[in-house]
Amino acid sequence: MSGTEIELEKKKAKYGMLAVIASNVAIAAVAAVGVWRLNGDTSVVVGILTAAFTAVSGMTTAYLGIKAVSNTARSMTLAAGPVQQPAPAPAPAVPAPPVGTDAIPAPAAPTSSS
């Protein structure tokens, strides 16, 4: 991996985590305002807090899961080395004749009449 690729990966990780944190803060702020404006209606407050918790945990888990799979795939690719293409199978020289009772016979070769 070259230096520019490493720097790119660092920036992607930093900004990805920053996006997750910013969205989690926004979800928490909206939930807090919702709870504050409802003035203690417990059934609705529980619903808001449950939805906020689900959104925050889902977003964080998705980011960390995708990042872990990406890192694992990258490390496996780097450990395996360059990918080699398999050699193509040679084509058969003569096509095989049809098999079965319903095979169509080949036409007879023309005869010369001189």
Describe this structure in words.
The protein has helices at 3-38, 42-80. By secondary structure, the chain is mainly α. Helix 1 runs antiparallel to helix 2. The model has no long low-confidence stretch (mean pLDDT 83).
Short description:
This protein is mainly alpha-helical and 114 residues long.
Which characteristics define this entry?
single chain; 114 residues; mainly alpha; 2 helices; elongated
Total of DSSP H or I helical runs spanning 4+ residues = 2
Mean pLDDT: 83
Structural class: mainly alpha
> Distance between termini?
76 Å
| Proportion of helical residues | 55-70%
Task: Report the count of strand segments.
Answer: 0
The ordered H/E elements are: HH
Shape: elongated
* Alpha-carbon Rg, integer: 33 Å
What are the segments in which pLDDT stays under 50 over at least 5 consecutive residues?
none
Largest sheet: none
The portion of residues forming beta strands comes to under 5%
Give the topology, please:
Layout: H1 3-38, H2 42-80
Helix pairs in contact: 1-2
